[in-house]
Amino acid sequence: xxxxxxxxxxxxxxxxxxxxxxEHRPVxxxxxxxxxxxxxxxxxxxxxxxxxxxxxxREPPQRFxxxxxxxxxxxxxxxxxxxxxxxxxxxxxxxxxELSKVIREALEPVVISELYPRTAIDVFxxxxxxxxxxxxxxVTAASLALADAGIPMRALVAGVAVGKVDGVLVLDVDEVExxxxxxxxxxxxxxxxxxxxxLQLNGVLSEEEFEQxxxxxxxxxxxxxxxxxxxxxxxxxxxxxx
Amino acid sequence: xxxxxxxxxxxxxxxxxxxxxxEHRPVxxxxxxxxxxxxxxxxxxxxxxxxxxxxxxREPPQRFxxxxxxxxxxxxxxxxxxxxxxxxxxxxxxxxxELSKVIREALEPVVISELYPRTAIDVFxxxxxxxxxxxxxxVTAASLALADAGIPMRALVAGVAVGKVDGVLVLDVDEVExxxxxxxxxxxxxxxxxxxxxLQLNGVLSEEEFEQxxxxxxxxxxxxxxxxxxxxxxxxxxxxxx
Amino acid sequence: xxxxxxxxxxxxxxxxxxxxxxEHRPVxxxxxxxxxxxxxxxxxxxxxxxxxxxxxxREPPQRFxxxxxxxxxxxxxxxxxxxxxxxxxxxxxxxxxELSKVIREALEPVVISELYPRTAIDVFxxxxxxxxxxxxxxVTAASLALADAGIPMRALVAGVAVGKVDGVLVLDVDEVExxxxxxxxxxxxxxxxxxxxxLQLNGVLSEEEFEQxxxxxxxxxxxxxxxxxxxxxxxxxxxxxx
Amino acid sequence: xxxxxxxxxxxxxxxxxAIEALIAKGLRVDGKRDPATPRSVTVELGVIERAEGSAxxxxxxxxxxxxxxxDVGAPFRDTPDQxxxxxxxxxxxxxxxxxxxxxxxxxxxxxxxxxDRSLREVGAVDLGELVIRSGEKVWVVxxxxxxxxHGGNLFDASMLAAMAALLNARIPYYEEIExxxxxxxxxxxxxxxxxIRRRVVTVTVAKxxxxxxxxxxxEEESVAxxxxxxxxxDGGRIVGLQKSGEGAITREEARRAIALxxxxxxxxxxxxxxxxxxxxxxxx
Amino acid sequence: xxxxxxxxxxxxxxxxxAIEALIAKGLRVDGKRDPATPRSVTVELGVIERAEGSAxxxxxxxxxxxxxxxDVGAPFRDTPDQxxxxxxxxxxxxxxxxxxxxxxxxxxxxxxxxxDRSLREVGAVDLGELVIRSGEKVWVVxxxxxxxxHGGNLFDASMLAAMAALLNARIPYYEEIExxxxxxxxxxxxxxxxxIRRRVVTVTVAKxxxxxxxxxxxEEESVAxxxxxxxxxDGGRIVGLQKSGEGAITREEARRAIALxxxxxxxxxxxxxxxxxxxxxxxx
Amino acid sequence: xxxxxxxxxxxxxxxxxAIEALIAKGLRVDGKRDPATPRSVTVELGVIERAEGSAxxxxxxxxxxxxxxxDVGAPFRDTPDQxxxxxxxxxxxxxxxxxxxxxxxxxxxxxxxxxDRSLREVGAVDLGELVIRSGEKVWVVxxxxxxxxHGGNLFDASMLAAMAALLNARIPYYEEIExxxxxxxxxxxxxxxxxIRRRVVTVTVAKxxxxxxxxxxxEEESVAxxxxxxxxxDGGRIVGLQKSGEGAITREEARRAIALxxxxxxxxxxxxxxxxxxxxxxxx
Lengths: 242, 242, 242, 284, 284, 284
Hints:
A: alpha+beta; D: six-stranded mixed sheet; four-stranded antiparallel sheet; 15 strands; elongated
């Protein structure tokens, strides 16, 4: 149960940073930002900055992890110590352990892992600055980094969180809205497949609100995946011209 | 050195809970209480409740642990966080590490491990409520769970702790008596073989007292093993009739 | 930056313990002090006491560590809990992790590891009493223990730290001088090869001071290696006579 | 690091198809229930007398024990006027051949965090009532979930056990001594029940092939593509969701899963109510 | 326990000889520089707005981010009148196929400790100015080094990033409240820059065969026998040394390495200065 | 989790029989002693001048060092008027090819706890004398056991080393400063010896085949079925027992083991006494 920390929706219906309820923060996406990784991407949702890198398919360090009929995914969601308001200890928190699982499970449905039995595909998500929406920005960055690494995918995924503040559903909640809000609904999915691959709800929503929030999230996800494709196309065309 | 916390033996020679010095707390034994484990048992000595489960013989997770001529025993004594007066941290304490060893060494002499080379027999002892005597109740529960799992044994074992409070030797000490007492002698053994398999003494006893305490413990152990057999017979007959 | 804690060089140019600036503390060396280890040595620089033991060449516990063309070195520098002024926690500190690496890298150039592919040579350095110069005494003890274990070496190594206190360069700093000094230059090397195998500087030195300090260290290292040879010769002759 | 599970129970392909075919017909592997009906469930309160509260839940073959312990501690800096509620889960190795001793893995952590959020978001425990001295001393309430037998659907059984143990919990007697310290004395009668404002359950809906079913047993769970954990409070509101597992769901499936969860929830609330009532009748 | 590295990149013998032959001729594998010249280097300040200070350094293909966070804490018992400076490095696994998740290994610890000592020994940060209440409350300054891409020579890039992030750092606003506690309020404008007294850089000199070269790239580093890390301050003084790696050096090589380091250091100081100047021009 | 040892020294069957046959004849493998006689034992005090107390014990080839360090700390909540005594053992890897670096394993923990209990149960150290300010500040006495060479029977050597180091320990000088803090100053002469009320030794009796022998050496220990550790105080009382190892004993064997232990104990007490006396003669 979260306490309201003051009015977060103005009389004009705008949010504390001036956005409309259904407005996403400025989004930046860049791929191929690292030289060692097989694929990499930086994604920014406003001040939230997330870097993702992919290695693989490769042999996992412990061979007992192998599966005979598919590649395993190994995913780590991790926050830089300087990414949060108070310094975060570098040891993985329980929250990071859960989010690593949730992000892995958001990627499993789209990675065509059957093509690479007995290998591991490693996805490392580093939150460099956290201002809300890090798990959904993380899924988005991971999707780009997987594509950049040339890992065959059924579809691209992206994510966004819808919140409820002062009774109003708002898209892409930032930290202020998240900590003061009544609900937080992070969603990720693959619009080209019509599939939700990440779905969590913290807080209370009526069934109607849930439907509206899911609508709002889905439109944003469709838009984010469009941007992913554009970024990848620009890179791909750049390569083909070279 | 423990301080006397007041009189624990009344003028009538009775203990703080009304028991005679050589009286065991009410004992409950039940086998087959879990569905996944190959064998399981719940044992209660008064308010002390201990659950034991046995898996195996099976392949150990790390193959370097194998022995070519026998099964290895892997034993864990562990206390639930809610079993003690102050919440116990779930990380294994030094005490739990020692008692896991002591309990394993109380079982090694009776398990016919030579029959299953290159395997592991796992015994998990969980203390659900601790009121003194958890290690000896644990050995007793483990003995039943091993039998329930069909692991061949040379004999059944059981255990009990004898204490000395206000100068009097008392059977099956509870927590109050243990923390106030002058000595604590946990003993486990296999009466059918005439063998002591667990023996510890914390505190000071004269040689004569030691002999008396051992007598007292032994009689109780004989009785506990009789009860184990009865419980197993009931289960076995139940099965054979079905 | 270290604060000067008072005058550490007297008007006569002597140090707080009466030594001249280029004077080493009394040195003791003894080999073969342990029965289990393949080689062992105790080295004392004044009150600093370091024990080293060597096991190997032997099979490392984890086989993935093997190298096909040489033995690996495994080196641990560790301080006994009672070796320091305040009790040291037995868990390895960051300092111990770094010094284990630095000492290993001081030994790598002299151990002829190519002779023993697919094996490990283990060097354990235990600081029993710490009064400055433990890493350099550690290298010296390790050199002796390796020789005592019969590990073929290109040359013996030894080490010493030069400090700067009250503006004066001093040999073999103890803890008082180290904590009050302006600079600390631990050096180890193999005089017979003309090679520096350990070199660190904590603090500020002019280029000229650096050269002088290195000279001072080198002369001491030559002397220490002479003593090592003497100790080993005595042991060797003793053995050959027996 | 989260890794694709690589040590799973092997379920034969034929068996998998049989399970799916049954659900398609509105049946379940146990032959006793339909897709909207949980297994038989019992809740026993007060099983650990030395804990402030406790419960043993049996849901089919699944057994989960929960214990509540209370200590006096400091509040979090940003909530000086609230007690502290902490949920912790252990998958003890006696519960399943798949569990190994060691610190909680990602499954145990996810479970504890889902239960924790479900309780917290809806204010199930009124933490504002658990303040002893504002900003300094509050009650710290530990809910420890102990999985004793893993017969599938640990989420629902654990949530029930946690809720039941909280309903069973009594605040221990305490005194402030001269130094200002607060001393708990469990030899004195407890001060009363925890302030429980809401009851919450989760209903887990498994997607097997194209079909949905609540409260999957171990075998069903092993063949399920994905699960949706739906937390509902006694006011009928959705108070939490968690998609768990490697598969995906459509929006339509999410909607149907929530509807199934609503249908099944009363079974769990009833088990809670019966336990609470019989417990009161016992005077415990 | 420190173990001889056994999971190293394999560099073919011919390639090794080619690299050495190039350096012998005063050339480098990248075809662009001589043994005394570092790779192209850029320093960007303020990349993480929520940190007190931050910097991203690119040195060839190597990328290191540094963030400075400040908390109020207790001073060490033996230095009651000094703030606390702590350097920590993480080799996050996205930076290299050689890095695995987990606590810092000996390389990360060595790196952090070399950077820490280089800053500390020369008084780069005036810790005496970071006291809030003597013996009780001081600023604790965390410098976290985050290796993002390992293209060789992490020492120099990390030292630059640390120094730049410290130059970029602003002391957050704080207030003492009645209880004597000190409360940081980052919503208010910061109080000013950290008191930086000295700038320090390290120049790493690799020994490859019989030749020396500054700022080795990843391939050069892989074939180097040994490296000497030379810390220099803006007054031209040697303020730290660290031999790192399995090889050895002669005294003459040590001398030449220090001379090479002196020659190369101005490139790093210039990058720092440019970043600081352009940052001021931005008003950030 | 405790696991049957699977990395044991291999002792040939013939050798095993030879050892047993010797003991049956009242002889030992070293050819020098009978079943009731420990190996030669020396106790050297004050080997670590910077510790509050220290001792090096050699028992045959076994070498154990013990160091005592004292800090000022808080008492346990339930014993506000007692100092704190903590025993810790490390099986450092230089002592045996069987020891690996890492946190104490079950053998090290068992050893430390047996030594701890033997000291504690009989009040060897008068903890009531170690209170500085009741309920707030007491002496915390750390006894660290360092196994340097494992030649068998670590229990007896460690107990001797602990006892000797405690006899050797001096309470450091301390002062209460204005703030109420207690500051230890080791540059001043110590305040005096620790209040030792009782001396305790353990005598370990090995059962090899059907025979008993005290103080087994490494080889005897390797073939022993089981050991009984008997703690005895200087008043001749049994103050502790620990059966250790995979075998079992009869009641008659327990009785005989205790009798053997009584017979052997004076050797250990004498070694302690000699060390204490010669130490006093040195004025140390």
